[in-house]
From TrEMBL, chains A, B:
ZnF C4-type: positions: 57-72
One of the protein's GO biological processes: DNA recombination
Record-annotated Toprim domain positions: 80-175
Protein name: Recombination protein RecR
Amino acid sequence: MTERSLLNQLIDALRCLPGVGPKSAQRIAFHLLERNREGGARLAQIMADAMLRIQRCRRCRTLSEHELCGICANPRRDAGLLCVVEQPSEIVAIEQATDFRGLYFVLGGRLSPLDGIGPDELGLDVLESRLHDEPVSELILAISPTVEGSATAHYIADSAARHGVRVTRIAHGVPLGGELEYVDGGTLALAFSGRRAL
Amino acid sequence: MTERSLLNQLIDALRCLPGVGPKSAQRIAFHLLERNREGGARLAQIMADAMLRIQRCRRCRTLSEHELCGICANPRRDAGLLCVVEQPSEIVAIEQATDFRGLYFVLGGRLSPLDGIGPDELGLDVLESRLHDEPVSELILAISPTVEGSATAHYIADSAARHGVRVTRIAHGVPLGGELEYVDGGTLALAFSGRRAL
Ligand SMILES: [Zn+2]
Ligand SMILES: [Zn+2]
């Protein structure tokens, strides 16, 4: 192994993967080279293509190689329901777990003035246009109930109110099967403050 | 996310990485697309190049993009010492941890007739040529002490004996700082059978 051999370059480059340190990078490199070159070559090609061509859907801001993502382009989705999430991965989770058939909007974060994240960074101007142009009857907020998340939710709720759109938020609390002693304190506090009459 | 979107293709392709299931593949894809496209693009390029160009060194059979790897091509390495390992990754470990300055030979496995792995599959003909052509004075076996590993070691030792080359093997036993109760039984048995007088 001379310095900067192609093998060492590969091991270094693999460290851009989340959670991959020097040891796992080496293990991955040897695995691909010795056992799955075809898979590695295919991954390399798709990855190059994806990094270049995947952009944000202009309607919902999720990741897509098309100007409109598959959900936004699907005429059978219910344009009356609009669900606001923080990250594209949350759309995948909702699509897999629920029968929600409305549309989405991806913020990409939460309002955080100190970090320079204002309404424009979250695309709230785009969301505002959608509330104006589209037949949205209910805006569902799936935003984490942190301080910044709540501020973001309030900001969006105010905007929706100006357009006469009903705003709801998904329920937060102890997960199904979650044992109380293992649930984090914030969730437990939320579950108590959000208690309902039987 | 329509079926077979470029994003889904990327998530599927990432599963060729060892230990990466559907959830981590998704996490990696979003991480690269949202936070490190430049790193992802560089990785894709190097990976494509590596899968295509990295082959086996013709002298030691380790992975290299050159016909001769950096170690084999280095005239300052001691050609009198030849260390036989099972995998290329073991060369990296030995180079990092020891001051060994000899040369290597990579088997790529162990003799296993039932799996169709014979002397040729391990390149033992190449090793034999080296013992004949090169000034090897000591052949060091760094082969794991399993049944198949021992059979492989014996086969190589016989071949070395025919060329009048001294054969040694690295010590196996309880690792430094290893607490006996946590060491696996096979290692502990080896440590006992390999005990030396104080
Ligand atoms: Zn979209
Ligand atoms: Zn070599």
